[in-house]
């Protein structure tokens, strides 16, 4: 699935779904928004770098060295929260993520 040219999601749930689809495609596994693909053994360190590159290129954020905490990237929901924090967007409790 080519999500690199996908429209920028407007809601937090849309962002999670876009990320879930991307992560499912690169792992060849149907993932849920909270499935930890590292714990499941679906992502190697090389694939993790590919995910970071995708996030930077597709979501207009810069991932700094200090951002490279595995907890930011374990699930589609966590990646969505990370992207929104990097963009300076305020997360609401109804978004399913904490600020």
From TrEMBL:
<dbReference type="Pfam" id="PF00550">
    <property type="entry name" value="PP-binding"/>
</dbReference>
<feature type="domain" description="Carrier">
    <location>
        <begin position="10"/>
        <end position="87"/>
    </location>
</feature>
<protein>
    <recommendedName>
        <fullName>Carrier domain-containing protein</fullName>
    </recommendedName>
</protein>
<dbReference type="InterPro" id="IPR036736">
    <property type="entry name" value="ACP-like_sf"/>
</dbReference>
<dbReference type="InterPro" id="IPR009081">
    <property type="entry name" value="PP-bd_ACP"/>
</dbReference>
């Amino acid at each position: 699935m080519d999500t690199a040219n996908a429209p920028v999601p407007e809601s937090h749930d849309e962002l999670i779904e876009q990320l879930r689809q991307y992560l499912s495609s690169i792992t060849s596994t149907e993932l849920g928004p909270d499935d930890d693909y590292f714990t499941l053994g679906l992502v190697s360190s090389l694939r993790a770098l590919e995910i970071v590159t995708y996030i930077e290129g597709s979501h207009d954020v810069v991932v700094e060295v200090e951002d490279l905490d595995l907890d930011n990237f374990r699930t589609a929901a966590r990646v969505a929260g990370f992207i929104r924090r990097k963009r300076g967007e305020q997360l609401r409790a109804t978004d399913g993520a904490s600020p």
